[in-house]
Amino acid sequence: MVRPLDERFRTARDLFPECRVETVQDRIVVNEPGTWQHNTILFRLLLQLVGTAARQGWQIWPNITVHLGEHADRYVPDLAVVPASPRMHEEHAVHGDATLLLADVVSMGSGYDDYYVKPCGYAPARVPLYLLIDPFQRSVKLFCDPSRGGYATEVVVAVGEPLPLPAPWGLAVDTARLM
Fold it and tell me: Which residues belong to any copy of the Putative restriction endonuclease domain (predicted)?
C-alpha cells in the first residue's frame, strides 16, 4: 500500500531537516542548501526588503512551507514575507493567501518548477507576489495579481533595471545589487 503524499512529505522532511523538502506535482523534491552565490543573492534581496518589512511590522522567513490547499502541492520558497501574525496551517506551514511576497532564486535543477509549476500553484492560493531571481538568465520576474487561472501580471526586467513592487510595498528592487 502506498502511503499518502502528506505522510511521505513529513517523513522526508524529518529525514532531511537540513534540506528544503517540497511536494511539486505529486513529487517529493529534496533540495540541498543553496550555494554561496544563491545565498548571496538572497542576502542582497533581504537587505532591500528588511527596511520596509520592519516599518510595516512584517516578518521575513526562510524555509517555511506554503500551504496552497488541502490537496495541493507544498512549496518552500527561499524567502517568505508575512504579516506580524499570519494565518498558519500548521506550525511549519503558512497559508499562501497570508503571505505578502514569496521569493525564489533559480538553481540548476529548479528552473522549470520555479517558472512554470510554482506560479500555477501560487496564483489559485492567492499568493499576492512571487519574485523569481534568475542568475543564469540575469533577469528578475515578478508575478502579481493572482486569480484561479494564474497571475494576470508578469513583469520581467534584466539585471540592472529597477523592479517596482506594487502596494503596499512602496519600494523598487534594485536588481543591479542582487548579482
Answer: 17-167
- SS3 state at 49: helix
Q: Residue 162 phi/psi, 5° resolution?
A: -70, 150
Distance between CA 133 and CA 49 in Å, rounded?
A: 14
CA distance 13 to 34: 17
Please name each of the domains of the chain with its CATH number: 34-177 (3.90.1570.10)
Q: Please say if the pLDDT value at position 2 is more than 60.
A: no
Distances (CA, A) of 175 to 103, 150, 163, 164: 13, 25, 7, 10
167 vs 44: CA distance, rounded Å: 21
DSSP one-letter code for 154: E
